[in-house]
Every structure is written in C-alpha cells, then in structure tokens.
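Page header: ASSEMBLY MODEL / two components / 643 residues total.
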Amino acid sequence: MAGSPLIRFDKVRKTYGEGEAQVHALAGVDLVIETGEFVSIMGPSGSGKSTAMNIIGCLDTPTSGTYSFKGVDAGRLDRNRRALLRNRYIGFVFQGYNLLARTTAAENVELPLIYRGVPAGHRRSLAMQALAEVGLQGREHHTPAELSGGQQQRVAIARAIVTRPTLLVADEPTGNLDTARSHEIMELMTRLNEEQGLTIVMVTHEADIAAYARRTIHFLDGNLAADLRNEVRRMAS
Amino acid sequence: MIWETVRLALRSVRRNALRSFLTLLGIVIGVAAVIAMLTIGSGTTEKVKSDIAQLGSNLLVVHPGRPAGPGGPGGADWGQRRKLGAKEFDALSTRLTGARAISAASQKQVRVIYGTESTSVSVTGTDSAFLEARNWTLASGRPFTEQESRSGAGVCLIGETVRQQFFGSGDPDGELIRVNRSTCKVIGLLQAKGYTGFGQDQDNVVLMPLLTYQRRIAGNRNIDNIYVSADDSVSTSELQTRLENILRDVRRIPPDGEDDFGVRDMTQIADTMASASATMTGMLGAVAGVSLLVGGIGIMNIMLVSVTERTREIGIRLAIGAQEKHILIQFLVEATVLSLLGGIIGILLGLSLAGGAAIALSIPFAPNPAVVLLAVGFSALIGMVFGFFPALRGARLDPIDALRHE
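Prediction written out in full:
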C-alpha cells in the first residue's frame, strides 16, 4: 500500500501462558519503522525485544493489536502466507549463523531461491553475486565447518540478501564473534543499508554494536522505554 | 524442483550411510523375501506342470478298483478288486477312437544285478506304445520289436540312473543284466528325465516286454495300468467317457452298477497340482509381505528420528520462506527414495536367491516382470505411507521453536 510505513505496530500485545502464570511479553506496543531505516533494538532479557523481532520477521503473530508489514495485516496471515512474505521481503541473520551443515556456502545462499522457484542456473549466479558482495569470492564451495565464524556470518548475510529483500532482521548478529570480526560484520551491514537502502532491524545488547544504527529502541518489561536517534553515527573506519 | 528434492534426499541418505543402510535392511529383506518366494513358487509351479507333462500330456491312466473319489482309493473291495487284463486292453485297442497310443503296463520294485553291483529298480513290463503314450524317448538303442513283445523276449530298456549305477558313462547296449534272477539284454537307453517334483527318480527304471514281465517277474497275467493318450481330435474328458463305456461293456457292469475301475486324467491332475502350488506361492508371498510392513515401520521410525534431529534445519528452512508443503515434500521424497532404494536392492537380492534356489532345487528360474514392477511400486508406496506422518510432523513445526532447538 503506497504511503504506509514498512513496519507498523498498533497496540501490539503478546501474551504467553494462562491465568496466574500469564506473561505479557509485549504489553501494547506502538512502533513505526520506515523503509531504509537502520534500527537497533536493545533491552535486558525478558524485555520483549526478541518477541518484537519475531513478530517483525513474520515468524510470530501478536495476541492482540495489529502488525502491518508494507500495509498488510501480517498478524492475520496464515503460516504459509507468512512464509511467502518472509521468502519475498525478509532476510534473516542469526547469532548462531544457522547455516546448513555439510552444505557449501553457495548452496546455503541458494536455499531461499529454491523456495522461490528460481531455475538452477540463475540461482547459482545470484548466489555467486551475493557471496561476492559480502567479500567471500573463492569460498563458494567451502562448507560452514571450513569457514571461520566471521565468514559463516557473511554467508548468512549473503543468504539473507540474495533475494533482494526489503527488510533484514538480525538477531544478535555479532554475539558469537570477537570485536574485530564484529565490527567487520557491522560495517558490511551499514554498507548494505546505505548503498542498497536495505532496512535493518537488529537486536543486540552491546552498545557499541547498537551505535552503528541510526536509531535505537529500548525495550523494558514489554514496553518501549526509549526511542533514540543516534546523532553521531559510528563511522566505518 | 522435484529433481532438486530427490538430489537432496539422496545426499541426506548418503550422509547417514550406516543408518540409511540399517533402515533399508527392513525393506530389502521384505522385498527380497517376497520376490524370492514368488519366483521360486512360480518356478515350482512350472516344474510341477512340466513333470506331469512328462508323465504324458493328454494322458488317461486306467487302474483297477473303484475310482479314487473324495475318500481316496480303498473301500471294502480294495483287497479283492477285479484286475485288469488282456481282455480290457484288447477291447480298448480295437474299439476306442481318438487315442494316439494305448499301452498296457505292470510294474514292481525289483532288485537288479549286474556283475557284483545290485540295486532296487522300478521294473515295468509294457509294450512299445508305452514310450509314445508317456512321451518318453530313447537316448540310444531301439524300442522292443513287435516280435520281442509277442514272444516275451529277455530284452530291456534302462534309465539313466541304472546305467550310471552299472556302467558309469559307458555304453550299456548289448550288456546282460539280471532282473529278479532272469537274464535280460539291454537294447536301449532312455532319455534322462530327472526327479519329479515329488522327489521320485524317473530314471531309476527298467522297461521290458509285458509278456516277459508277466512270466518272469509277476507270475500272473494281470495288467496294473492301461495308459491311453488322446490325439488332438478329442479332449481327455470326452475320451474318458468313451473309454469308460467300453470298459463297462467289456466287464459287463449293469447300467445301475458302479465302476470297478478308475481312470485318472493326468491333465486334470496337472491343473490341480499347479493351482495348489500357485496357492501355496501366494500364501508364502503374503507372509513375506508382512515383513515388508515391518520394514515400513522401520522407515517411519527412522524418519521420525531424522525429523527430530534436523529440527533446526527445518527451522532455518521455514524462516527463509519454505512453506509446509516444501518441508513435507522434502521428507516424503527422502522416505520414498530410501524405501525405493531398499526395494531395488531387495529385488536384486531376491532374484539372486531365487536363482540360487532354482539351481539347487533344479526348478526353472521364472522371474515375473509384473511381480518385480509391483515390488518397486509397493516399496515406493511404503515409503510414502510411512514417511507421511514424520514428514507432516516436520512441516507443522513452529519456526521459532525449531530455530531454538539444540
């Protein structure tokens, strides 16, 4: 829908459990994220940031309230329609990389294209291109076990962007990496945001990682605690 | 897409080679058992058919006593039944139409001696038409002449087993053997026929003219059996009716009296035996089919393990946009590939087993393409049926839970 923001939370609640044991992971959150933003989400564990991220990534649905993705009420879509949405518009990067073991980098990157029905030859060339963009030329036929953590995360990023998504959802993308590797990954993500206009929503608990984003949202007890614009953006060195 | 999935499935099968092999084993054994049973079974059926054809096709065998009814031979008159004799044989020879050959024969198990060797042999006294009626041929030598039959000459034809016992691979022609203390000159060797399906050696025989047999061995003029083979103009049942009418007439049985002789239709027996053997084959096949079912359950078991083990992989696939059907198809194809692979190995194993059995039991090797195709189809079906539940379980996983799975 033209004019509607990419992501819109309207009194989004997410409740787990019943009765006394009921937990409000999200307690009526309003939030708007526009196309092209780079947002980091912070907060202590149990604050609702992971729940928010799962809903943003269309992996989960709100208990009440509305989640609109590109103007579509994504919270009311069934599993398969949400899968289609993820396949078409959303890329995922996880803390633990989540690559298929014993499967080459190129094959891992091709995976989302298979579910999109892209023919094999075209798939291969798109995968090669995405791997080149993340700086992994020459590693296409290595399996995850033969790659370092930083390289594995690059493969995961290549897999996320190979479908040219609108949104990249990153769940602690640097959580398993050392400082130097972390900053390399963040520079790569910043470049994707600036050069390709890729919207990025990233969960992290490290302030210096969050500083790469232009906006930082803090969650606390299922509510938005703060929504800050980063004046001084950490520059890629 | 499907080819992609098959490739993926093959790769996953290869990666867990040992586990895949153990899973396959159930299907392999099941399919091999079915194939071997059915192939050996149809070989046996064919063997039985050809054995009975060797006894003589279109052959009627007349024997004294009541016809063997449902209660089998026996009854009050078993001991003092009226024998068959030259009277009946002559009547059939002159009056029966539609017969290709009519032969009278009597037989007895008798000790036969050559030099210092001695062996127990089935000795049959008969005429030269016997060979034609029974479909027997000579490997060498000549049949009895008319003259020899009439005069009761001391000549005989011997079977392959008897030759090997006495002469090894040598030529028996013209040798003298002793049959029940009278001397007999070997004039011919019967073509080897091997064992019957009932384990009877058809080559452990000596044939001599009926008169010679009656005088020197039986000591009476009785005929045990009259063999009548039908020519192509008449069915065996039609010929049997004609034959019974002549015999009732000759033996002066009143219209309301029961037959005091029996006629066996070898064609009918052949059919009965073959169908009994086929039924047996079917039953054995069904029992073997049960092991296929067990194999299928093995597949289900392993696919459940596989789905659990690969929960995280399923989570990744779901997150990046796989729909339920993609996951379902992936695991279904994997189960099908697995069981199909087992089916193909099972067919090869089953056919080799059947081939080995065919050689060992000297029955024909009769693989049935329809059975093989059916086994392929059935093993694929087993994979699909038993793979469906685990695959569905995988497809229904929640992506968030699946991704969290360690």
